[in-house]
Amino acid sequence: MKMRSIADLVAGTAVFAGLDAATLDAVAGCGRNVHFDASETIVQAGAPAEHFWILRRGRVDISISAMPSETTTITRLGPGDLLGASWVAAPYRVVFDASAVEPTDAVEFDASCLRARCEEDHTLGFVLYRNVAAVMRNRLHAARMQLLDLCDARDG
User: N or C, where is the chain less crowded by C-beta within 10 Å?
Assistant: First the structure.
């Protein structure tokens, strides 16, 4: 069985779409494989956005805490999804909480490493920021639809 490189593991994902093999190899130098156990907190709102993840296996819930004892799940992510977009824009602080729902494998990227690579290679920076923006646009649309469903349910 052939070992797959970090570049191989993330090559087909939306975040890294459009990168040539050499650039993808350079980006992969900022990544490493990680594992999260079921119910493990991956990141909490307010923390520095030092990493982001491409999920390979498992499921992760993105949630917000309205009150200390009340958490609301916004969305559930799965294989191929981006976890964490706060690394792309200052002040580089996490906005949501994220916890593994089941055992989860991911490629974790060092955000400062990748931001430095984007500064060195503006084409890489443009492609990554464009791809992350597209992912976030899709998530905002999904959140909007979820809110509309909630409003309809309350009105009905």
Answer: N
Taking only the tens place, the pLDDT of each residue in 7-62 is 999 998 999 999 999 999 999 999 999 999 999 999 999 999 999 999 999 999 99
CB neighbours (10 Å) of residue 69?
6
At which residue do the structure tokens 């130098």 appear? 29
pTM over 0.70: yes
Sort 55 into a burial class: Cβ within 10 Å, 0-12 / 13-18 / 19+.
buried
Query: Which H/E stretch holds residue 58?
Result: none
DSSP-assigned beta bridge partners for residue 104: 36
Cis-peptide, bond into residue 68, ω within 30° of zero: no
Question: Using H for helix, E for strand and C for coil, what is the string for 132-153?
Answer: HHHHHHHHHHHHHHHHHHHHHH
- Please tell me whether residue 156 adopts helix, strand or coil conformation: coil
| Element spanning 22, H or E | helix 21-28
